[in-house]
Design a protein that fits this description.
- The complex is a heterodimer of chains A (525) and B (261).
- With 525 residues, chain A is an alpha+beta fold.
- Helices cover 37% and strands 18% of the residues of chain A.
- Chain A has 18 helices and 21 strands.
- Chain A has a five-stranded mixed beta sheet with strand order 2-1-3-5-4, with helices on one face. Chain A has a four-stranded antiparallel beta sheet with strand order 12-13-14-15, with no helix packed on it. A three-stranded antiparallel beta sheet of chain A has the order 7-6-21.
- In chain A, strand 17 and strand 18 form a beta hairpin.
- In chain A, helix 2 packs across helix 3 (82-101) and helix 8 packs antiparallel against helix 9.
- The radius of gyration of chain A is 34 Å and the shape is elongated.
- Residues 1-8, 29-40, 266-275, 277-341, 345-351 and 466-514 of chain A have low confidence and may be disordered.
- With 261 residues, chain B is mostly helical.
- In chain B, helix 5 (125-135) crosses helix 6, helix 7 (160-168) packs parallel to helix 9 and helix 8 runs parallel beside helix 11 (229-241).
- The radius of gyration of chain B is 23 Å and the shape is globular.
- The chains are: A alpha+beta (525), B mainly alpha (261).
Chain lengths: 525, 261
């Protein structure tokens, strides 16, 4: 019986196994279909591609054929690939273009005025996805344009942009597209790339726009992001576009927003004040110290040495009270001390001092009301044997190393300040007295000549009476607005020296490096 | 015959199980949790409906099956189930992330302050730490990092300590950050933007909570902040004037200045 049973079951077992494999085959096949459907989920909608990519051609380099092949966007299904993400970003441009048409906001950027996708397509006809080995794709370069080409951008496939948002990727496309209209970058004169260029001597590295207003590629990038901020209702996209725009504005433009200037803190020997001194970073060869012109050393002090220096000197800290703004020589300085002494610069010590006879005289000779009208001061130096205080209604000067003084009452002039100028030929300093209408008068270099002068001598001077183009004051104003635009002028300026020092925000805070940013506009907020 | 049938059923079930495992590991679905697979609507092709949907303020709980990168259990469950970030697929069109708290999923972009404050009460210190880790992780996506930061910012007082840690955390160095046109340089910008956002949030909170001012006063003591001129400057704005909220006003003024041109 057993044998029989076995004989009966063996064929049955084979037939069962056959059925089983047939069943599994069907299962496998259905799974394959399911996988296909699953894979297809990642592909980009054909109708969106049709609406978005007309008149745009995507190219991919094929290593085997050593040639470019056209990409069929409908075959892009790997949502981590750079090609896929680029197409999705283009679709995003289309989406926000459609949204912007029904949005009541007035848009600021040229991108939105033309329509984001229209803007891009009017500047780009071909997108080349370059292999990461390509020369221009080194160091994880994201994208670039070649000036000899027209209407093309190159995207490096080696860049892992999978982590970037669609807002950011689309802004890269806008940035590169704008380059096709001739907007190129310039060398940075501040920020991280300025430092890097100096350190690494990367003279060819063009990493900034001069200013936002010119709407170069960075400028347009920022205005695009600010328009995204208006149109999107998604708070995450709002946060990304806003904060990225702010980060760009503070790092990728040579002219900073809201009059922010980079400068150094300079301390008085009297340990009562810290000033802001604008940083003339735009000057060529500014790492070299020239005669008569001081450049702030780029090298940061080591924390230990700087701390020691400052703590030993008991450097003052910023008062929380509103600073009094004064101009010393041509520089606007921000007086943070309650001291009523005038602090003047001493060439020998490279410090502001208040204990020399000249500044001591200030306190003893002028009453409080007069002191409140102080506008400017200059100190004797090797070329000029006297120093002066400029008040709203008088010019008061004292000969160096003597008690001789001379005062000129200013009843007609509205003084603005002094400006120290170095004659390019003689290399001698001379002082200009500036008035508020933009005129300038050259003060004599010796005290004996000055002591014979009165206001009429200034007023009747032909140089002074005719307001000239590009007068010193205008240049001064220009410098104050944009220190980068007048570098040739600045080269002649005898600027105040300073040191890298540490400062405190308040009495409880730790010492921080004196090199810092400052803005009178923001201070006033 | 009966035995054959049973055998077939058993083996075919195993086959289905194998197929199911294989299916779970497929690239399309591997990043999603089991729950998400169930929730996610099946569509044959991805279109931009996700981004359109997410560009609107959506309802809160259980409405969006997007990704759940960080499963945040409630405090009560934290002893038995630690929050585990799951690997997630990042797509360019994603515009926010969801989090799971107490078994419910929440789209972060849709959380208002009240929601975020309520949720923050259920989070453990460990979970706050994990949120901070995600925000400070350069390997995480931009949207995810900003979403989690947004979540912290919406929490108000509960997020202060984490925001403070984020501001004073050292900005990482990237291999090619010196190439201004590189991905690494963009990463550097992202790192700065996250810290500015966190700093601004603290500055805003200081206007309503005096205790936050003590955090602000300590930020400059961080070497990473004091060594970064921009962060150093921005962090000093509130303190130098003694006016909390000044940083926010300054950043708004910067934007307004550009929009007015």
């Amino acid at each position: 019986m057993r044998t029989k049973k076995i004989r009966i079951r063996i064929p049955q077992l084979f037939s069962s196994l056959f059925l089983l494999f047939a069943f599994m085959l069907i299962q496998m096949k259905s799974h394959a279909s399911a996988s296909k459907i699953a894979d297809a989920k990642a592909c980009i909608n054909k109708s969106l591609i049709t609406k978005t990519l007309s008149h745009l051609t995507l190219h991919r380099w094929t290593e085997s054929a050593q040639s470019w092949e056209k990409i069929k966007p409908t075959t892009l299904c790997d949502d981590n690939s750079i090609e896929y993400k680029t197409v999705k970003a283009l679709i995003y441009l289309k989406k926000i273009e459609d949204q912007s048409k029904n949005n009541g906001n007035s848009f600021h950027s040229l991108v939105f005025k033309e329509g984001p996708l229209s803007f891009f397509k009017s500047r780009v006809k071909n997108i080349y996805f370059e292999p990461k080995e390509q020369n221009f794709c080194r160091e994880l370069t994201l994208a670039y344009v070649l000036t000899k080409e027209k209407n093309a951008i190159h995207i490096c496939t080696g860049s892992p942009i999978s982590n970037e948002s669609v807002v950011s990727i689309s802004s890269v496309l806008i940035h590169e597209a704008h380059h096709n209209r001739g907007f190129l970058h310039v060398k940075c004169t501040h920020g991280i790339y300025f430092e890097l260029e100096k350190l690494k001597n990367r003279t060819n590295s063009l990493s900034c726009d001069n200013d936002y207003e010119s709407q170069g590629s960075y400028g347009l990038n920022v205005s695009y992001l600010l328009d995204i901020l208006k149109i999107t209702k998604n708070p995450i996209h709002q946060q990304i576009s806003r904060q990225t725009a702010i980060a760009h504005l503070l790092t990728n433009f040579n002219k900073l927003p809201m009059g922010i200037q980079r400068g150094n803190a300079v301390a008085s020997l009297e340990k009562k004040a810290v000033y802001f001194y604008p940083y003339a970073s735009s000057l060529p060869h500014d790492n070299k110290k020239k005669t008569g012109t001081h450049y702030i050393p780029q090298k940061k002090p080591t924390p230990s040495s700087a701390t020691k220096t400052i703590l030993d000197a008991n450097t003052p800290y910023f008062s929380q009270n509103d600073p009094k703004v004064i101009t010393v020589n041509k520089n606007k300085l921000y007086f943070y001390s309650d001291s009523e002494e005038v602090l003047v610069y001493n060439h020998n010590t490279n410090l502001f001092i208040a204990t020399d006879p000249f500044s001591r005289m200030y306190k003893s000779m002028f009453d409080e009301n007069t002191r409140k009208t102080l506008i400017d001061v200059f100190y004797p130096n090797l070329d000029i044997n006297y120093g002066c205080f400029l008040f709203q209604k008088s010019l008061f000067c004292k000969q160096e190393d003597s008690s001789n003084t001379h005062q000129i009452q200013l009843t007609h002039l509205e003084p603005h300040g002094f400006y120290i100028y170095k004659n390019a030929t003689t290399r001698r300093d001379f002082y200009l007295l500036l008035d508020k209408s933009g005129r300038s008068y050259q003060l004599p270099n010796d005290f004996s000549t000055l002591s014979k002068m009165n206001e009429n001598d200034i007023n009747n001077d032909p140089y002074f009476s005719s307001k000239q183009k590009n007068s010193s004051l205008e240049l001064l104003s220009l410098w104050a607005v944009s220190p980068l635009s007048s570098s040739s002028f600045l080269r002649e300026v005898f600027t105040l020296p300073s040191q890298n020092i540490l400062m405190k925000i308040n009495s409880e805070s730790t010492w921080i490096l004196g090199l810092f940013y400052w803005s009178a506009q923001i201070e006033a907020l | 015959m009966r035995l054959n049938l049973i055998f077939i059923i058993i083996v075919s079930s195993m086959g289905s199980l194998l197929i199911l495992i294989s299916h779970k590991n497929s690239p399309v679905l591997s990043s999603q949790s089991q729950t998400q697979q169930q929730d996610r609507p099946h569509s044959p092709q991805i279109d931009n409906s996700d981004s359109e949907k997410n560009d609107e303020k959506a309802t809160t709980a259980n409405n969006d099956p997007q990704l759940s990168p960080l499963n945040l259990p409630s405090k009560e469950n934290s002893n038995t189930e630690s929050a585990q970030p799951t690997s997630d697929r990042t797509r360019a069109e994603e515009s926010s992330f969801s989090i799971a708290v107490n078994g419910k999923k929440y789209d972060i972009a849709s959380l208002d302050e009240a929601d975020a404050e309520r949720l923050s009460e259920t989070l453990s210190q460990q979970q706050f730490k994990e949120i901070k880790t995600v925000i400070l992780s350069p390997s995480e996506s931009e949207v995810k990092r900003h979403s989690y930061l947004y979540f912290l910012m919406q929490m108000k007082q509960a997020g202060v300590s984490s925001l403070y840690e984020i501001v004073k955390s050292e900005i990482p160095q990237f291999e090619f950050q010196n190439n201004p046109h590189s991905q690494d340089a963009r990463k550097k910008t992202l790192e700065l933007s996250l810290r500015i956002a966190a700093l601004e949030a603290l500055d805003n909170l200081a206007t309503i909570d005096p205790q936050v001012r003590s955090y602000l006063s300590q930020i400059n003591q961080s070497k990473s902040v004091s060594d970064h001129p921009i962060l150093n400057y921005l962090s000093s704005l509130s303190l130098a004037s003694g006016k909390p909220g000044k940083l926010h006003r300054a950043l708004e003024a910067i934007i307004n200045e550009k929009e007015a041109l």
